[in-house]
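Justification of computing resources. Each target in the renewal requires a structure prediction run like the one illustrated here; the chain below, 228 residues long, is used simply to show the kind of job we budget for.
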Amino acid sequence: MSISTVRRFGVVGAGQMGRGIAQVAAAAGFEVILTDVSLAFAEGGKNKIAQALAKQVDKGKMKPEDRTALLDRIETREGLAELSRADIAVEAITENLDVKLRTFREADAALPKDAILASNTSSISITRLAASTSRPERVIGMHFMNPVPVMKLVEVVRGIQTSDATFDLVRDLSLKLGKTVIASKDRPGFIVNRMLIPFLNEACFALEEGLGSPEDLDAGARLGLNHP
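Resulting structure tokens:
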């Protein structure tokens, strides 16, 4: 499989992260299959995408016909059976290992043999998720930042079993989605959270020590750390 052969993009979970991933995939021209445990949940996710895009139209940042075309590329489905038509599927459900393992086994059974299965997890081992499937070499992490349509970064996380071909395709796919890509090994927290957690801890310590008011600490983080 190559980037030119990827046509359909499956998204498992129509919550905030899943619908964001579905939106950017559809914006990049992919046909999207947005699935959830019920059709109502999946349709609810698409409706929220439609509402967000309507605001973009109202602000003059998007043409009405482009909004319609993007939404037409997103189909909603219940369950995982329709992933049989996907070239890649990204899981974006709750950060619960048991639930993810069950979902990965079901998605693995539904997907075509050569399809890629990715997880949007921010903390769970890709290696462990891959081991629950029949395609461990085609399992990878695609950790999008929230909100997905706005934030440019994607962490591409290689499990021990992830093949070079899978990594290369997902990196290229992420670039096609308009994202900046960083590559991480499969370690707790990956890159972003590995750096973020100590920072948050230091902020708590600074507050406890009376270093500054909550407002001053917040302004320092937002403005000072973003300074070139």
